[in-house]
Every structure is written in C-alpha cells, then in structure tokens.
Design a protein that fits this description.
Oligomer: single chain
Number of helices: 21
Radius of gyration: 41 Å
Strand content: 15-25%
Largest sheet: 11 strands, mixed
C-alpha cells in the first residue's frame, strides 16, 4: 500500500484577488466541496503566470503551481511532488491545455502514488477552449474523470454542435449523488461566508495586454456548460454535456459531474497485451476462427462481461519484455509502460523493478518455478566393487585397518616373537588385509596376539558379510548417480539451466542466499529451437512452472522426447503470485481488483486451470512430467561382463602392481650385487 508523504517544497503565493470572477468561484467551490474532498486529499491548482487560479475553501489543502514563475524543470519537479503527496484533484487554468495534460500523464508514470485523479478545466481566456484537440489525445484513455467549463453568452456560437450529448451520470458515488436542489442564493451566500474576502475582492489583477476572462465576466451575465468526453462506447472522444450552470439560478439538471464511466463501458475497445503461454494464455491467431483461451483469458472475459467492453490483442516476440530506466520497454512490460495497451497478462509475477513503472492488480494465483533436470546416469561398471559401502563406511574400514596394523606391530615388538613374526610393518599390513578377506593367519603361541587376532577375525567377518550382501544388491539392482532434487543440489552440481526469457530469474535476481546466487549465475536464455535441442542432450536443466492444481506450464520446446530424458525436481526454486498489469493510476484497476478478489474467494481460478489443461494441453505430457521423478522398477537384471568389470579391474591393477614390484626387486638385487663385486 502506498503511503502519502508531505511535499519537500511548498510554494506560498500572496493571497490577492483571483482572476476567476466571484460567480465562477462559486461553481468551483461547489465542485471542490462535492467531488474533490471525499478522500480528504489535497487539491492542486495549475495556472498560467498571469493567472492566479480560483480561490478555494480554507478547509481544503491547496497547492498552487504557476507556469512561468520558475523553470520548467523545477515546475515539473513540484508537480511530481504533488502527485506523490496524494493529491487526487487538479484544477487547471492554462492556455496551452494539451501540453499540460500530456505532461501530467508523463509525470504520473514517475510518481509513487497510484490513483485515478479528477480534473476540472477552467477557461483561461474568452476564446473557446480546444476541447476537440484535448479529447482526442491518447491520454484521455486514462482520464475518465475530467470536466471542462465552457462559457455561454459570450461566444455562444462556439457551443452550437449537434454532436454533443447529455451524460446524466446515473452511476455516482454515494457522496457524489448528494445533489439535492437548494436555494442557489443561499448556497452562494454560505459559500461566500467561508472566505469573506472572496466576495469583497472580486476584481482582477495581473491584467496584461490580452483580454483575460475576468475582464469580461465581471460585468456580463453568462451561462456555463460543464463538458466531459464520453470515454465509453465506440466514440470515446465525443463531447458530452453534463449540466448547465448559471450564477443566479444554479444547475439546470443537478447531474453528477463525475459519473462512473467504468461500470458500463458500452462496447468501448480496450487494448490487451498477451502472448501464447499455456495454460495461462492460449493464442492461435492463424486458426479459423482465431483461438483466444487460457486461465487468464477466461478471467478477462469475466471482466469483459461485467463491464461491457470489446478488446483487441497486441503482442510482440519479446514475451514478458523489460522496462528500461527511461520508461520505454518491450514485451508485455513495454506495452504498459509506454501506454500502448490498457491491460497486460501472461503469468506476470510481482517484480520490484517493474513495479516502479506500472501497477499490479491484486494477486489471484499462486505458482512456483522449478526445473526438469537431466535424469541421473547409471554409475560406471568399474565402480561396482566400491558401491556396497558408502564413502563414510570405506573410511571407517580404512581407519580400522590402520589401527589393526599398528596394534599388531606394537604387540609383536613388545612381546617379542620368532624372527620375522609381527615385527615388520609390511608383514602386519599383509596379515591385516588377509584377515579382512577372511584369510586366517597361522596360529601364534602368544596369548595376547591370539586374543587380538580372534577379535579382528570376528570384526572382519561381519564386514565381509555386509560387503557380500551389498555386492549382491548392487549386482541385482542398477545404481545411479544422486538425482538433482533440491535447490542445493542444483547449485552444488553447478548444473546450467535455461528458459526462453530472463523473466524466469527476475524474482531471485537480488537474492542474498549463496545457493540462489549460484543458480542465477548458471541461468541462460536460449531460443525455443535451441531449448528443444539441448533439453534432450542431458547437460541442461529446463525451467517449468508448477501450478496450484498439480499441472505444469510447459513451453513449446518441451515435447515427449525431452520429458523422457528429464526428471522433475521435488523442490521449487521459488514461488510467486500472478497478477495482471496496467498503467499507474489506471481507472480500470479498482473494478478489476474487485472482480479478481471475488474470483479468488470462489476458487474459480483453480477450476479454470483444470478446465484449460483438459481441453487444450496434452494429458500424456503432463503425466510424463508428474511421474518423471518416479524411479522405474525394471526388476532383477541379468549378470553380464559389465558387472564384473570392477573385479577384473582390481585383478589387473594387482597384477600390474605385483609385476612392477617384482621388476623393482630384481633391479635392486642386481644393483646390490654389482656394488658388492666392485
């Protein structure tokens, strides 16, 4: 949740007479009191340097920014601070209206406060405002709550336009609906008493060479039209008359000036961004008719039915895309950050970097990223003699042998014996090894040695029996390398893994855990074609998504051949929440969040997952991924030469060692005889 912060810089202007006439100020006060203070937010007044903007009720926090009083850079820095301060209402009285609206939209993308704001446009001169140029701007797609004040009685011909329609505004908030007609003179009087100087000082100041609006309206009776853009329907740029206002008689219809335009979009076309990524989104535009399905497409269809809009899909080849520091980007992220789409979806996680440039909806689905790692290979046959015992067991056996050799040598040297009996290290080593393989030494008449040798024979008998049983098991059931099951296994084995976009590691890119850092380092981005080839070679793990219902989101590069060579990890690399994205302060966000919350409460996303998987995805492939971690029981195996390869290896090593020793002894003996003869 975003928190409102205080402005770092506040510009205080001298309280002088407003360039808005007394009567028009009454209208502004009514709009501010009725529509712009319901969230206890502040109001921002933007005006040209020669205008001071309207005076507002004293109980309303107001920030005034005037074009031309400071450099453009400073002005828009202050504008950004008003956005971050939580100001939800803007009163604009400038000549170059499209430029200011465009700048507000651009600055809002940089702000941290995310909300749909209300705008009131006041005339800056007696010339007609360029409302047509304003309403056709692309920024109007995200500004439904904009009301412009047009003057009648001065340039009445500017308002004779048969394309205008009346917007009654049946869908107002509870506070906005409080528009009960009252005596307008009493209303003006009550408003005036809030700030008596407003009624007393009604003349204009800062009059320049041009004829300003306040110079004319001080002495002329006039009417006001409150105009907005249609926003909904097939002609969103059409101008709509909300109501007519006169300083003496008040409102003509008492219509809601900021109606709810989102609840019924009347067939308005929204631009959606997505790509083919089953089961979230299934897009096949070459089919007849085109196929648009998937769990998230079904969710957006529910939103479409609830709010009565049509849609058009846009996509590119960059999948999730990236956003650069200047706000431009590609893929789904770029479509939203550059305002080229209204809503984007396709397994979008809650990424911190992207959150700086657009909004995420309420998360409505939990998913996790794991890997299909290469299946463990069969251990080489030469290792068969070593497999019955583990490394720690072999270490214990080695230590036992060393202790036995040292004890035999010590007893032989201490007690004394026949010449050459237990008095040399070589003899003790050979006797200990012999007893390990159940070769009983000749009987010794010394009692301590007999007891010790008897104990050694019992211990070595147990070891030999255990080894024989383990060897039988190894010869019967094939032994494989340890599988890659956990995050730790994937990191320690230094196994490279890959997917088709860097978004697969966005969520753990800033992780501080050593294992995750290693996994991020080992990640590679490959094309779909390269992934399809490498997935079958047994040297690369492939990223997949584990869904809530036990299904998997598999890329098109994972077919049955690839799945047959891979094994599903039992542990997830990380998990995340899926959401849709829209621009900061999108007017569609509240209603979309409300619908997503109701869908989650009802469990519909989980139902949609199973429905889409059964209808569009390969059940055989899904089952293959699920059972890939199950070791296939092939039963006992027939003995072959490979099973005794290790034994023959030991025999060959022993023969080579014996031959080398024999040759060495012969050379040593010959050398000794040669020295003696000299």
């Amino acid at each position: 949740m975003m928190h409102r912060v205080a402005l770092a810089v506040v510009v205080y202007l001298p309280l002088v007479s407003s360039c808005v006439p007394r009567s028009l100020n009454s209208l502004v006060w009514h709009v501010v009191d009725q529509y712009m203070t319901e969230d206890n937010g502040c109001v921002v007044v933007l005006s040209d340097s020669v205008l001071e903007g309207p005076l507002l009720p004293t109980y309303v926090p107001v920030f005034r920014l005037r074009l031309g009083w400071q450099s453009e850079e400073v002005f828009y820095s202050l504008l950004l601070q008003t956005l971050d301060a939580g100001c939800l209402a803007y009163i604009i009285q400038v000549k170059n209206l499209p430029s200011v609206i465009r700048r507000i939209s651009q600055t809002a993308r940089k702000g941290s406060m995310r909300a749909n704001r209300r705008y009131l446009i006041l005339p800056a001169t007696t010339a007609p405002m360029p409302l047509h140029d304003l309403f056709v701007m692309k920024e109007m797609r995200f500004m439904p709550d904009l009301v412009a004040v047009e003057l009648l009685g001065i340039t009445e011909s500017a308002f004779v336009d048969n394309s205008y329609r009346t917007f009654r505004g049946e869908h107002c908030s509870e506070r906005d609906n409080d528009t009960t007609p009252i005596n307008k003179q009493q209303e003006l009087h009550s408003l005036g008493t809030m700030n008596p100087t407003l009624l007393e000082e009604g003349t204009c100041s800062n009059r320049g060479k041009d004829q300003h609006i306040c110079d004319v309206l001080d002495n002329v009776d006039y009417d006001v039209l409150l105009v907005t853009h249609q926003f909904v329907g097939k002609l969103p740029q059409a101008q709509i008359i909300l109501d007519k206002w006169n300083p003496k008689t008040g409102f003509e219809n008492y219509s809601c000036l900021y109606p709810d335009k989102i609840s019924d979009l009347q067939g308005k076309e929204l631009i959606l961004a997505s790509f083919n990524y089953p089961p979230y989104t299934i897009v096949n535009e070459t089919a007849d008719p085109p196929v648009y399905a998937g769990t998230e497409f079904n969710v957006i269809r529910e939103y479409m039915r609830a709010h009565n809009f049509t849609w058009r899909l846009v996509s590119d080849d960059e999948l999730w895309g990236v956003v650069w520091e200047n706000g431009s980007g590609n893929g789904l992220s770029g479509f939203i950050s550059e305002d080229r789409a209204d809503i984007a979806f396709g397994s979008m996680y809650l990424w911190h970097h992207e959150f700086q440039f657009f909004d995420f909806t309420t998360p409505y689905y939990r998913t996790a990223v794991t890997c299909l790692a290469p299946k463990p290979h069969l251990l080489p046959s030469w290792m068969v003699p070593l497999l019955p015992f583990t490394k720690s067991m072999w270490l214990a056996v080695g230590i036992s042998l060393l202790i036995s050799v040292a004890t035999l040598y010590g007893l032989g040297r201490t007690i004394g014996s026949k010449p050459g009996r237990f008095t040399s290290w070589s003899e003790c080593c050979l006797l200990a090894l012999g007893m390990l393989v159940m070769q009983v030494p000749s009987e010794d008449h010394r009692l301590p040695l007999r007891y010790f040798v008897c104990c050694l024979l019992v211990v070595f008998l147990l070891l030999s029996s255990s080894y024989s049983g383990g060897l039988s098991s190894v010869l019967t059931v094939p032994r494989f390398e340890p599988p890659i099951d956990t995050v730790e296994d994937l990191a320690l084995r230094d196994m490279p893994w890959a997917a088709n976009h860097e978004a697969w590691v966005f969520s753990i890119k800033e992780a501080t855990e050593p294992y995750l850092q290693r996994i991020v380092h080992n990640f590679h981005v490959l094309s779909d074609d390269d992934l399809a080839i490498r997935a079958t070679q047994g040297d690369l793990a492939v990223g997949v998504e584990r869904l809530n219902g036990g299904n998997f989101a598999l890329g098109s590069y994972l077919g049955e051949e690839a799945v047959a060579t891979l094994r599903l990890m039992s542990e997830d690399l990380y998990w995340g929440s899926v959401a849709m994205i829209a621009r900061k302060g999108s007017p569609f966000m509240p209603s979309l969040n409300n619908m997503l919350g109701r869908l989650v409460d009802s469990g519909i996303p989980l139902h949609l997952e199973g429905e889409v998987v059964r209808q569009f995805l390969s059940q055989r492939l899904q089952l293959g991924v699920q059972i890939s971690a199950v070791t296939e029981n092939t039963g006992p195996t027939l003995l072959s030469m490979s099973h005794v390869q290790g034994a023959f290896t030991l025999l060959v090593l022993g023969l080579v060692a014996a031959l080398a020793t024999f040759i060495g002894e012969c050379l040593y003996h010959t050398l000794c005889q040669t020295r003696r003869s000299k």
